[in-house]
From TrEMBL:
PROSITE patterns: HTH_CROC1. Gene3D superfamilies: lambda repressor-like DNA-binding domains. It comes from the Bacteria. Residues 20-60 form the HTH cro/C1-type domain. It holds the Pfam family HTH_26. The keyword DNA-binding applies. SUPFAM superfamilies: lambda repressor-like DNA-binding domains. GO terms for molecular function: DNA binding. It comes from Salegentibacter agarivorans. Keywords: DNA-binding. This is DNA-binding transcriptional regulator, XRE family.
Length: 95
């Protein structure tokens, strides 16, 4: 069972496993195993990943209930150079 959605976040932010591994000071193999759901990272590594990826730590996890882990909305970002700037939110579960 896959618990983390790190691969989606990396793809959305156009960050490679290799780049994340270098920033986290772990091997690319470690990141690959985490992304594929073969191993689960330590809490401190999860927190460092969330900080580097500029997301709430809850956003690293797959939702377990309708509405998702972040409630009823998803944050929207634009990319400006190497930075991501929050520009708003969108309601994903509008009735």
């Amino acid at each position: 069972m896959k618990l983390l959605r790190i691969s989606e976040i990396l793809k959305d932010k156009e960050i490679s496993n290799k780049h994340l591994a270098a920033e986290m000071k772990v091997s690319e193999n470690t990141i690959s195993k985490i992304v594929r759901g073969k191993t689960f990272p330590r809490a401190d590594l999860l927190l460092n990943m969330a900080n580097f990826l500029d997301v709430d730590i809850r956003d690293l996890f797959e939702p377990t209930k309708p509405g998702g882990s972040t409630g009823e909305s998803q944050e929207l970002y634009i990319r400006k150079g190497e930075r991501y700037i929050k520009v708003g939110e969108i309601n994903l579960y509008q009735k």
